[in-house]
Design brief:
The chain is built from three helices and six strands, in the order αββββαββα. The chain has about 150 residues and is α+β, with helices and mostly antiparallel strands.
Length: about 150
């Protein structure tokens, strides 16, 4: 699978080059990494990973960016209000969505978008990558940090 993943990420790399997006495949060959300048001296890291197959058997990708880490010892204090706000943000967001990922460090608020690699073109990658980067950065900025 590692060789397959690397080959698929090389396809992402080629599309990113056509989209004039600079990035690289990480050292382990598991994700394609891009860093975006989101303005106001802020930046946001966006990653692309192979996430399996769609209903048609074609490889699926997820573009994602971390927005906030809630340390494990504090994640129980994610308020109901904050959780509902994440859901409300999803309703108004285009080209991406917010979600929660349980990690060894804690609960990670992430912004993601999924797509089929076979039909991925430069414009689609650019639109989704920028949407994910800016949505994650806006959420992160609410908490006064620029960690990701």
């Amino acid at each position: 699978m590692a060789d397959d993943t690397l080959a698929l990420l090389r396809q992402v790399e080629n599309v990113a080059a056509l989209a004039a997006l600079r990035g690289r495949i990480d050292e382990q060959g598991k994700v394609y990494v891009m860093d975006f300048d989101t303005g106001g001296y802020r930046s946001q890291r966006v990653l692309v990973r192979v996430t399996g197959q769609g209903p048609n058997g074609k490889p699926m990708l997820t573009i994602y960016s971390p927005a906030r880490l809630i340390p494990r010892r504090w994640w129980r204090w994610l308020s109901r209000k904050e959780a509902i706000e994440i859901l409300r943000l999803n309703e108004s967001m285009r080209f991406a969505r917010y979600g929660l990922a349980d990690t060894p460090e804690g609960m990670l608020v992430v912004v993601t978008a999924d797509m089929v690699l076979e039909t991925l073109d430069a414009d689609e990658l650019r639109i989704h990558a920028y949407a994910v980067a800016h949505a994650a950065d806006r959420y992160e900025a609410q908490f006064g940090s620029d960690q990701f």
